[in-house]
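Running co-folding for pyridoxine-5'-phosphate.
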Amino acid sequence: MIRLFVNVDHVATIREARKTIEPSPLKAALLAEKAGAQGITIHLREDRRHIQDDDVRLIREEINTPLNLEMAPTEEMVQLALEIQPYQVSLVPEKRQEITTEGGLDVCSQEGMLSETGKRMHDRGILFSLFIDPDAKQVDASKRVKADSIEINTGRYTELVSIEGIRAELERIQASAGRAAEKGLKVFAGHGLNYENVKDIAAIPEIEELNIGHFIVGQAVYGGMENAVTEMIRSIKAGRGNQS
Ligand code: PXP
């Protein structure tokens, strides 16, 4: 079965709208775990628009499943990760003005810096993952910088509307997943996934882990976190053909 890591950033987004203490991303993370999430993901953005440094420390301490920390590859973030020591760090590109992560990392153009960052993570026993677009060149570069895994950006796939466009993007994702697995990289995916579009992604056999946030938190507003996570797990299982 694919592991579902639930991203609780947007619980913090609601809290930060009022700069108060509720709702709590930790409480949401614990409910997600209760419903079967195998991990929790948070993105500490440079502008701290949702998750705050103290959230990272608290969630790292209190959750019962692995913590995946998404962050930009900056020295400030690297220092924080080395201090807090999550189970895994996922490096993502970050632009201050963007509403959400807009694309994958360009690994090819920064191999030296990423190799060095990966080594610093590995020296602390932290797994090192790279969020990339489904592109053979980026997969190959991820292997060269000794990433443990790639997370394939499904954002474009989830935004396309034409059947042909969706099919072509899925083929790119499948090809990248296959290429990465052949090279010994673990393969994850995420961005923009919902109960429906997750199914074709879950059907790709090389994909071991999914990071899903915005849609789950949105559904939780209507029916609660546990129901939203349970329903997402049901969709993932349906997509994978109930393999375990
Ligand atoms: N993976 C990465 C690298 C992300 O930046 C995000 C968004 O924070 C996600 C997955 C989850 O995307 P969504 O919130 O659209 O489910």
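Result summary
The chain is about 50% helix and 15% strand.
The beta strands are 3-7, 39-43, 67-71, 88-91, 127-132, 149-153, 186-190, 207-212.
Job closed.
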